[in-house]
Amino acid sequence: PTVEARLLFSDLAVKPQTITLSSTPTLLGRDSQSPVNFPKNWSFISKLHCSVSYDSSNSSFLVQDLKSKNGTFVNGKKMSPGSKEVVASGSTISLAKPECSFTVEKNIRS
Q1: Could you tell me which residues are beta bridge partners of residue 2?
Q2: Mean pLDDT of 15-36
Q3: pLDDT of residue 18
Q4: Residue 88's Cα: distance from chain center in Å?
Q5: Mean pLDDT over residues 72-95, rounded?
Q6: Which of 41, 70, 74, 109 is deepest in the core (most CB within 10 A)?
Q7: Would the CA dihedral through 46, 101, 92, 77 be positive or negative?
Q8: What local confidence, expressed as pLDDT, does residue 14 receive?
Q9: pLDDT value at position 1?
Q10: In contact, 5 and 18? CB cutoff 8 Å
């Protein structure tokens, strides 16, 4: 069986809504390096806001705040600027505001 790890944005204005994650960190923000396009008026998101990766060795996700201006939140708790946090599948990560949030999840496919 293979594990598909992904993040899923709740807001329909975010394109694409789903990103497949791997051990290579996915950068999220308004910068062109980010695979996600946020609405142009969402200036509360930093150019490079946070990164997310999946660690298959312990089936967990790693979120790192990239010293974002308005913070990265894991299940409502603000991360320290520049810090990394191991998060479980099903956790909600918010970029600055609750309306800009995504869930990390893993699906096992046989």
Answers
A1: 109
A2: 95
A3: 94
A4: 12
A5: 97
A6: 74
A7: positive
A8: 95
A9: 65
A10: no
Answer for the pair 66, 82: CB distance below 8 angstroms, yes or no.
yes
> Mean pLDDT throughout 78-88?
97
Tokens of 4: 């598909």
As given in the structure block, the two tokens for residue 8 are: 């899923």
Quick one: tokens of 108? 């096992």
Per the rule left: phi > 0, alpha: psi between -120 and 50, beta: everything else, 49 is: alpha
| Distance between CA atoms of residues 52 and 59, nearest Å | 13
Token pair of 87 as six digits = 């998060």
CA distances from 56 to 29, 32, 33, 35, 107 (A): 24, 27, 24, 21, 12
Q: What is the DSSP string of the chain?
A: -EEEEEEEES-TTSBSSEEEE-SSPEEESSSTT-SSBPPTT-TTS-SS-EEEEEETTTTEEEEEE---SS-EEETTEEPPTT-EEEE-TT-EEEESSTTSEEEEEEEEE-
